[in-house]
Write a structure and sequence with these properties.
Strand content: under 5%
Shape: flat
Structural class: mainly alpha
Radius of gyration: 50 Å
Helix content: 40-55%
């Protein structure tokens, strides 16, 4: 019995009080009911206690020694699953019909079946018809053992076995069939139990019709089984019911069948329908047998037509559709294994293990591959690579034995995609990991070489880095398998190192300042400062910010820094020291370390500081003694000197003089240099090519150390070996020598060493005499051990070499070698004579005689030689500055991993090309600049070079070029900048004495102005020298003394005569301003040099490096590439500096007394220089956009409250305004582009408006500056600001049309389309803020736009049309007749008119009719006004 709700205890309610809880507790105790939770003690098995029930705990145990455990009934001991499990639902519960008033007991009795009902239905099986067979007699003592192989030849049908049976059962069945006996059929009770369910099959689909009812093919019902009938002969009753159903269906029409079908489907439970449908589908898909088709008909003869259950009755399809569905069903009914078995290249045998059941998905790979695509397609396809990293075209059919086909998404295509290679790299199979990593390494190598630009879309390198390649390689380096580790090292080397980049850097080592290099740091993006506004002590430091970043963030910004953070160096040290890999892996690791050292000085320091890394490199790969290997290719390079190891030391030494000193003194490089360079090359017991490479790198390492003034004591010790090497130069440079290229590099490295030693020896006297002024507590460097007397004997032998090489230019076999070596010889002589002029032993007469002899015997014949003349003609075609944007496709690089533009350098013209004229001309002009500085009489002998047609054409191309600054080109641009600067220096020495050079002085001046903002970090001395000499030289501004100002004045007078109206007085003063500026050029130069004083330290560092002051050089690593040395807008520098010091961007202003001393003079000189450039050197300022010029000149008004009122500033600013407002300049002026350093021009304009309101006093110049941005083509935001929040300035903006000198059409055409702005125009006119006497210019602008708006006949939106009509009515009913007349009769702006515009005598008929339609007037009431 179910208790009533009254007797049940209620739970406490949330709103109950404490009294209610106590009352309910008493009721619970009185009721005596069991609690939902009980306290019991669980035994402690660790103490050996035996568990007992609750009674035992209460009676015999001490309560203090037990732990109470609270248990809740019906709570499972295990935690529930986190995955929600759907509740179990009865399949038949929803199909039962129950009533609310039905008694539960009756329903229980009706459904309850007593055991007697079950026992009464037990029927004994009739076995009378089953034959009984005796066992077969054999002559064997024991039955023959059955073997699986014997069963392979016996084909037993599945029906005979009765389904899936064991091998033993199959053999028994086969034996009985062989004996002619029927097989035994054992039907389980489970099978018998489910047989009736299989017969109760529903319709296949909601709208299907069983055609077997119409054909009479169905002999028994699929749904009615007769189970549960009370009659003894249930099968007969079932057939009778089935016959009645069949006769009834045959008597029904098709529409009636469909209608009854819909009715049944609407009444039955959908789940029941689906269940019956699934049961019938199972029976329909079963294979046909004799029992299912007694008449021998196949199952395909029963065709079922169906449609969606949600749709209405559909007509039967046509016979063609029925036939197609029959074929589809026939294909579905065929076993898939049979289809696959027919397509297999080999047929599976029965004796094969586990091949009794064919799995189609696995056996598909045994068939033939589908054919690849035969035609090209425009659709982008996934790139696939072979093991060498080559892209495989989608249409290429490769044989399968290459191993490039696999079980991927596109089995017909050969090759591996990047995703598949990443997947294989994490495989458990060693071969797959190694293969994928080596393939990725080959792909990276080809990507760095730029081989994929024409075939692939996007950057392969960037894609791999974004996918996590860096972490993949780092994890692979930790692999315990040496093969995988080697493949990872190879891939890492392919990612970081570009072989052609290293080759180019090595080839330029002997060039002018070639041993210096830029750090390969990625461009640092400015990060948002989250600590803005905080106290300095609370702000996060750069180091703390870097430590807070994750490895992924660091690697995304800088690949090398990310690898260092992931402890790459200790792992590489472990591989070198413990694993001791193959020679190729050692080579890759040393090259990776070299690339890391090139990253920055901090990275090089980390390489040096890595524990036991340098010790391992020195002891294993740069030993002091080694044994000769008997193999031509040694199996191990341990214990042998390697050139790449010496190169690593050289790059580390380049990072700084302290690192170089550590290498020389602590690591043991000094002993290695002596060991490698003191004996003859043949005595090193190495392969010839390896001997040349290791000695070349040793010379380069020594040259870097000598560049700091270090290791010069070795020069004294090894002087005999050096002389021996110099004497053997001619002998080793045989044209037939297969190692000629390596021999040339060795000689060039030797000459680079001698050049650096000469520079260091030249500083000995200065340091010895203590002539260096120490700054602060810093002591000057000690004098080097080598003095000038140690190098005085070198020029004699080297001069003979140079003469022989000059003669060797006539021999085609010796020409290439001579051209390669001559730049290094010329560099040595430049260093020697440059330092000779500073020595106390300098004898002018003897030195001048030597220079004349050198000029006549070597330099002039060299310049006049045909080979050199041909090289000079190629200047323009090999120039990087002129051809940097020529369409060459650079290598595949990433912002986080910068590289050089070296891949493919041999196949294109450029500075690095073997036939490039730049190495020879740079060293030659450097020597000529030094010689002409010592012997000025020789200057005239080299003017032909400056005035030659190839050089002039090259300079013209330079003056028009616009190269871009990037890591890719900066290292090459630096070398070309040196040549341009040296040509300018030669022109500076020749311009005053040679008329041929003076004729091209403006061109050279233009080139100097263009070169100045191009100079890169490390060239600050060049910029300072150009500013001190050429930029402000009167000799190069030839217009100043050749009638230039007078010509400008004549042009101004002619323009004044042609114009009938009065123009601004400033227009006639440009000529006088130019004359005054040219006379003031020395003061202007001093002004700019003063404002560049903050670069003094950088200039001194650059000067030491460029002038060969080696003991003062701190590092051969150039400064980081943060931008050019000078900004592109350097001519505005004094003005911008003053604004940053005193200006107020928000308006207001400062009094003139608060300006720094000399500010007025500095601004005046800056404006004078700008006038000179705008008139005579306009092309030099093309790098500065017009909007940037306008923004910089606006500082004149924002610097102070009355600086712009000073007469010199006023006159110069008027002139610049006239120059900037010329028609050609106005077309290129785009104020929508943000000026450099500003978010938008609108922000600057708002500051100008506030400043004008505060301090302008109606100044006409300031007013023109305010009106210029109000042109119609610019943003309406600035016009809204003037007529909106700053409408008060209209009272003082009295600029006339003549003073502005800008056509009025630029302000009035096209008509204004901004309704808020038109309303502001109208409001300013009506309220009297805009009057002809206050603001004549803007009064005309407002009239024009309001008149065009109210009389516009264009179709517009309803709101706009309503505003137009409303404004027209207000104009018509206006009390101010003058303004009314101006608004209605306005015709066109007219500059020579008294009012500034022209009016109609009366309204045109069209306008009059339009006005009448709006205000409702008659024709005779139209406004007729005569112009007064």
């Amino acid at each position: 019995m179910i208790p009533s709700s009254r007797g049940m205890l209620q739970r406490p309610k949330p709103g109950g009080s404490e009294e209610d809880l106590l009352r309910e507790q008493e009721e619970f105790i009185k009721s005596g009911a069991l609690s939902a939770a009980s306290v019991l003690r669980r035994p402690d098995k660790r103490r050996g206690e035996v568990g007992g029930g609750p009674e035992e705990d209460r009676n015999g145990c001490d309560p203090e020694s037990h732990k109470d455990v609270v248990t809740i009934e019906d709570l499972p001991d295990q935690l529930p699953s986190l995955t929600p499990v759907p509740p179990k639902k009865s399949r038949f519960k929803n199909s039962r019909v129950t009533f609310e008033d039905e008694d539960a007991g009756d329903r229980l009795d009706r459904h309850d079946t007593h055991i007697s009902a079950v026992l009464s239905k037990i029927v004994e099986r009739d076995t009378s018809s089953i034959p009984i067979s005796l066992p077969e007699f054999t002559c064997m003592a024991f039955p023959k053992a059955l073997h699986r192989s014997a069963n392979g030849t016996q084909q037993v049908p599945t029906s005979a076995v009765g389904g899936k049976k064991s091998i033993f059962a199959q053999q028994i069945a086969a034996q009985r069939l062989k004996e002619g006996k029927a097989p035994l059929h054992f039907t389980s009770r489970a099978t018998q139990k489910h047989k009736p369910m299989e017969q109760k099959l529903p319709l296949q689909r909601p709208m299907e019709v069983d055609m077997s009812y119409h054909t009479g093919e169905l002999s028994s019902s699929r749904l009615v089984s007769g189970e549960g009938l009370g009659c003894p002969d249930s099968s007969e009753e079932t057939r009778r019911i089935h016959g009645e159903n069949q006769d009834k269906i045959l008597a029904m029409s098709q529409s009636e069948i469909l209608e009854d079908q819909e009715r049944l489907l609407s009444q039955l439970d959908p789940r029941l329908v689906e269940f019956v449908r699934s049961r019938r589908a199972e029976s329909a898909s079963a294979s046909p047998s004799s029992c299912e088709h007694p008449e021998g008909k196949s199952s395909k003869e029963s065709v079922y037509l169906s449609s969606d259950c949600n749709s209405g009755a559909a007509p039967f399809p046509n016979p063609k559709e029925v036939e197609m569905k029959e074929e589809a069903e026939e294909e579905e009914l065929l076993p898939r294994s049979a289809v696959i078995e027919n397509n297999l290249p080999l047929k599976p045998q029965k004796e094969w293990v586990h091949m009794d059941k064919l799995e189609a998905e696995k056996l598909e790979w045994m068939g033939d591959m589908p054919a690849p695509r035969k035609t090209q397609t425009k659709r982008a396809m996934q790139a696939r690579f072979d093991f060498n990293g080559n892209v495989i075209p989608p249409t290429e059919d490769l044989p399968a034995h290459l191993g490039l086909h696999h079980h991927g998404d596109e089995p017909e295509r050969a090759g591996y995609s990047l995703q598949e290679l990443f997947l294989l790299s994490r495989s458990q199979l060693i071969q797959q990991r190694s293969l994928s990593l080596s393939t990725l390494g080959n792909i990276l190598s080809k990507a760095r070489a730029g081989n994929y630009h024409s075939t692939l879309k996007g950057s392969v390198l960037a894609t791999l880095l974004d996918a996590g390649l860096l972490f993949l390689l780092r994890f692979a380096l930790d692999d315990g398998v040496e093969g995988v580790m080697a493949a990872a090292v190879h891939a890492l080397r392919a990612l970081l190192v570009c072989t052609e980049d290293e080759e180019c850097l090595d080839l330029t080592f002997h060039w002018f300042r070639g041993l210096a290099a830029f750090p390969l740091l990625p461009s640092q993006e400015e990060e948002e400062d989250d600590d803005e506004g905080l106290d300095e002590s609370l702000k996060e430091t750069v180091k703390e910010r870097e430590e807070r970043k994750t490895d992924h963030d660091v690697a995304g910004q800088d690949v090398v820094k990310g690898l260092l953070r992931m402890k790459l160096l200790p792992r590489l040290r472990y591989i070198l020291e413990v694993v001791r890999p193959s020679p190729r892996v050692v080579q890759d690791i040393l090259e990776v370390l070299t690339r890391i050292a090139r990253h920055s000085s901090s990275s090089a320091t980390q390489v040096l500081d890595c524990p036991r890394l340098m010790e391992t490199v020195m002891s294993e790969f740069l030993p002091t003694s080694w044994t000769v290997s008997s193999f031509s290719l040694p199996q191990s390079v341990y214990g042998l000197p390697l050139a790449c190891a010496m190169k690593l030391l050289r790059v580390l030494a380049t990072s700084g003089r302290h690192a170089c000193a550590r290498l020389l003194n602590s690591v043991g490089v000094r002993e290695r240099l002596s060991r490698l360079l003191s004996p003859e090359p043949s005595e090193l017991l190495l392969e010839p090519h390896e001997t040349i490479r290791i000695t070349t790198e040793a010379y380069r390492m020594w040259a870097v150390a000598a560049g700091y003034g270090q290791a010069c004591d070795l020069y004294i010790e090894l002087y005999p070996a050096l002389l021996t090497a110099l004497q053997s130069v001619r002998r080793t440079l045989a044209p037939s020598d297969p190692l000629l290229h390596l021999q040339l590099q060795r000689v060039l490295a030797l000459l680079a060493l001698l050049t650096q030693v000469t520079h260091t020896a030249g500083c000995h006297q200065e340091l010895q005499a203590g002539m260096v002024s120490s700054s602060g507590n810093e002591c000057p460097p000690p004098p080097p051990p080598v003095s000038w007397g140690h190098v005085t004997g070198l020029p004699a032998s080297l001069l003979g070499h140079l003469k022989s090489f000059t003669k060797g230019l006539d021999n085609p076999l010796q020409r290439e070698g001579s051209l390669s070596l001559m730049p290094a010889y010329l560099m040595f002589f430049e260093a020697f004579y440059h330092q000779l002029s500073k020595q106390n032993c300098f004898k002018p007469v003897e030195a001048l005689h030597e220079l004349e002899q050198l000029t006549s015997e070597v330099l002039l014949p060299l310049l006049s030689h045909g080979v050199v003349q041909d090289l000079i003609k190629n200047l323009k075609s090999f120039s990087v500055v002129c051809n940097v944007l020529s369409g060459h496709v650079g290598p595949d690089t990433s912002p986080s991993l910068p590289g050089l533009a070296c891949p493919g350098w041999r196949d294109r013209p450029g500075l690095m090309s073997p036939s490039s004229p730049f190495p020879l001309l740079t060293s030659l002009t450097l020597l000529l600049e030094t010689i002409t500085g010592i012997h000025k009489g020789l200057t005239c002998k080299f003017t032909g070079l400056l005035a030659s047609e190839p050089v002039i054409g090259y300079m013209q191309s330079i003056s028009q070029a616009t190269p871009t600054l990037s890591h890719t080109w900066s290292w090459l641009l630096r070398h070309e900048h040196h040549l341009i600067y040296l040509l300018l220096r030669l022109a500076y020495r020749s311009v005053s004495i040679e008329t041929q050079v003076a004729k091209h002085a403006p061109l050279y001046h233009q080139v100097a102005l263009v070169l100045l903002p191009w100079l890169l970090p490390g060239s600050e001395h060049l910029a300072h020298d150009l500013l001190s000499t050429i930029i402000f030289s009167k000799d190069f501004i030839s217009e100043s003394h050749s009638g230039g100002p007078e010509a400008i004045e004549l042009g101004e007078l002619k323009l004044h005569e042609e114009t009938s109206h009065h123009t601004s007085p400033s227009l006639q003063t440009v000529g006088a301003l130019l004359r005054e500026a040219c006379a003031n050029l020395p003061s202007i130069r001093g002004c700019f040099l003063t404002h560049l004083a903050h670069l003094e330290s950088s200039v001194l560092v650059s000067q030491d490096a460029l002038l060969g002051r080696n003991p003062w050089i701190k590092s051969h690593l150039l400064p980081e590439q943060t931008g050019p040395t000078l900004p592109s807008d350097w001519p505005f520098l004094p003005l911008v500096s003053l604004y940053e010091t005193t200006g107020v961007s928000g308006g207001g202003g400062l009094s003139v007394e608060e300006l720094p001393q000399g500010a007025l003079l500095a601004v005046t000189q800056c404006l004078q220089w700008l006038v000179v450039l705008e008139v005579w050197r306009e092309e030099a300022l093309k790098i500065i956009t017009p909007v940037a010029k306008l923004a910089r000149l606006s500082c004149v008004f924002l610097c102070s409250s009355d600086l712009f009122l000073e007469r010199p500033v006023q006159k110069l600013t008027w002139a610049l305004f006239r120059l900037l407002s010329r028609p050609s300049k106005l077309e290129s002026l785009d104020l929508n582009i943000p000026p450099p350093g500003l978010a938008s021009f609108q922000d600057l304009y708002c500051a100008l408006l506030a400043q004008y309101e505060a301090v302008s006093f109606g100044d006409r110049l300031f007013g023109c500056w305010i009106l210029l941005p109000l042109q119609r083509k610019y943003s309406a935001t600035m016009r809204l600001a003037v007529f909106g929040e700053h409408v008060g300035i209209l009272r003082s903006l009295g600029v006339t049309l003549e003073q502005l000198a800008i056509p009025m059409e630029r302000f009035t055409s096209p008509p204004e389309d901004s309704l808020p702005l038109v309303r502001l125009y109208f409001r300013s006119l009506v309220t009297g803020n805009a009057k002809p006497s206050w603001c004549p210019f803007l009064y005309v602008v407002a009239l024009a736009h309001v008149n065009a708006f109210v009389f516009s006949q264009d179709a517009a939106a309803q709101a706009l049309e309503a505003a137009r009509h409303n404004m027209m009515r207000k104009i018509y009913y206006m009390m101010d007749e003058v303004l009314k007349k101006h608004l209605l009769l306005f015709r066109l702006p007219k500059q020579d008119s008294q009012l500034g515009f022209d009016m109609y005598h009366q309204l045109p008929p069209i306008r009059a009719k339009y006005l009448e339609s709006i205000v409702g007037l008659q024709n005779d009431a139209c406004c007729e006004v005569e112009e007064r």
